[in-house]
Amino acid sequence: MQGLQIQYLHIMDFQLPYCFFFLLLLLLPFSGNGQAHSNISSGLFLTAASDNLPWTSPSGEFAFGFQQVGDAGYLLAIWFNKIPERTIVWSANRNDLVQGGSRVQLTRDGELVLNDQSGRTIWSPVFGGSGAAYAAMLDTGNFVLASQADANLWQSFDEPTDTLLPSQNLNSGAQLIAPYLEKNYSEGRYKFILQADGNLILYTTHYPLTTSNFAYWSTQSSIGSGYQVIFNQSGFMYLVARNGTVLNPVFSNSVSMQDLYLRATLDYDGVLRQYVYPKTASSSRSRAMAWTTLSNSIPSNICLRITGQQGGGACGFNSYCRLADDQRPSCKCLPGYTFFDPNDERKGCKKDFISQDCDHPSQEIDSFEIKEMPNTNWPFNDYEMFGSVDEDWCRQACLSDCYCAVAIFNTAGQCWMKRVPLSNGVTDPSVGGKALIKVRKGNSTAGSSAKKCDRSNLITTGSVLLGSSIFLIVLSLLGIYVFFSRWNRQQQKMIPQHRLMPDMNMQNFTYNELERATGGFTEELGRGAFGTVYKGVLANEDKPLIAVKKLDQMAGEGDREFNTEVKVIGRTNHKNLVQLIGFCNEGQHRLLVYEYMSNGSLANFLFGDSRPNWYRRMQIAFDIARGLLYLHEECSSQIIHCDIKPQNILLDKSFNARISDFGIAKLLKTDQTKTTTAIRGTKGYVAPEWFKNLPVTTKVDTYSLGILLLELVCCRKNFDIDKKEGQIVLADWAWDCLKEGKLDLLVEDDEEAAEDMKTVERFVIVAIWCLQEDPSLRPEMKKVVLMLEGAVQVSIPPHPSSFISTI
Prior knowledge:
Mean pLDDT is 82; it is low at 1-37, 283-287, 445-459, 491-500, 666-680 and 802-807. The protein is of the alpha+beta class. A six-stranded mixed sheet has the order 36-40-41-39-38-37, with helices on both faces. Strands 29-35-32-33-31 form a five-stranded antiparallel sheet, covered by helices on one side. Strands 1-10-11-12 form a four-stranded antiparallel sheet, with no helix packed on it. It is built from 15 helices and 43 strands. The protein is globular and about 85 Å long. Its EC number is 2.7.11.1. This is Receptor-like serine/threonine-protein kinase. Belongs to the protein kinase superfamily. Ser/Thr protein kinase family. It is a single-pass type I membrane protein. The chain crosses the membrane at residues 458-484.
């Protein structure tokens, strides 16, 4: 009997799972509308309503259905379904929103049809063959229509809107079109297309048409020609050539898909960006629960790239573009102009004053004034150019010419006259020169209008003015009193003369001003080799926070030398450098005023109690390398930092790395390549040539970066006496691990890094190349950046023999 019971139980154990599976098969075709489906059977439909459930992928990470767009209507879309933002990655009717009650249905004939509330067909995909047997929302974010034999008849991946997802490829002729605005998903002003000739291009469009206008980025010169764009699961995006060769990547970020959602989107501002979003919150990670932009946005500065003769540029007519603190393009109107639509800045700007009378321009010169904007230009709007003139001549020429809206004057003595509408406006330190903008003074009216008034108008106007004379006199007296009261108060707060350094947009502070701003230099932010840094706040309207570096006595540095050095610092402008905003050179007091970095130094971030996430450390490495590339090769005067270390890398509010303290480094003229000087820098980061009285080149910064890269990979200091023998000197240990094929030991306690060993290996190899004892073996910073990005192949380095000597 007992044996029979055991046998019966075994039979039941075997049969129960199959019974359960069979029951599921019976129930599946009859599951209710709007539930999560692996397969969506013919006849099922969704209705546009606020409470209607979408069709979801098996994991629930993606959904297909209706999303309400404000009060404008509903968008049939695919979105990330497990995050609060419900970020849309594809849509069917972006240019034709539907209203409540509209319906999408997989018909009995196997067609997917979107009808509005009146029954009008809004959208239906076109595909060959017989109708679809079923539809499915996949975990990749792809929505497919499939045959009875499970062959895909149509898929959303083949008809992208503005976004690509990992495993989604862009085939020849396919394109992304940017949305019009961030929350307006209709087709906008930019597109990203893989052309039939194999060239991958970013274009402006002839909006409201989507035809191509100006190509502001292309792979033809930098990457090559291909027939398909691959976007793989690791975050790499690259072209495949027609002969099957894999070309250099468009994006080379390495991302863990296990922990992060990833997308590549052509944003409404015309920039192609990659974004990540953490799948789960974790106390061990410092990621905020929001979409974060990865490095290498394309292009890096769209303000400088759009220069076509047609179209308004990155920001519309009569405006100018500049990169904001978050490295996104910001649009502004030039003085005397306002936005046509404050909710859509890229529509451009309009004049707020009456234009100059072209019949009598000389009579109106006194009614206009010139306002300056340094480093600003509107290319291709000039109708006249004068050479060998000075700035005053250029100003007067524009004031006396009724066609002239802006004159551009440069250091070569050239004066370019420009008329409205002005296009492709840009403000950037690389532009140079200055814009002289003509605007009407105060409430001055156009002379022509006064001359054209008939006698009756003049009599009427005079009567009104005469009848109101007493009121106006009282009002004028009151105005004079208010004016002088405010003027008195302003005088008490008056900023001293010479506020701006010549040719530089920097403030010249007095020592007393900075003493007040810092509260008597009380809140110390840090100490360095050349002085102490204090936190302060400026007394102007915005009350911005500042960091004031109070320099110690600097022997041999006279006023002229100091001012020259400050000029060089002030000309530097890069997203990975801390920006100098002012200075003080008053008697024995020499101070530098920088923008305040709210997240402190990399040293505190990297060596604190909790380990920063792997992705953030990689981005910081890219940021530092790009900042050094700018100092070494791209700014007007080559700068060797000489003291790259975690304490001199600061983090802004978005945790972007900014190099600080480069302003006191040894400066080189552009035709110099090396210098010899006393040992500078910090123990543990100093290149061996300092100790050998060898010429010091930019390669000393390369060496220091090598140490920093290893610290970022391993999240520990270069020298740690508390580590076990063989691991005390990080650089020695890293070489041993590389040589023995045991790089996993470097990150064995770091789960995120351990899952990305290819990047770990690449970073360590690049670091070892940077640490070569012979400076000639160390790569230039441009090659370092390319190697870190994975854009060039990195070979195994030789043994570096200088680690111990630098400790």
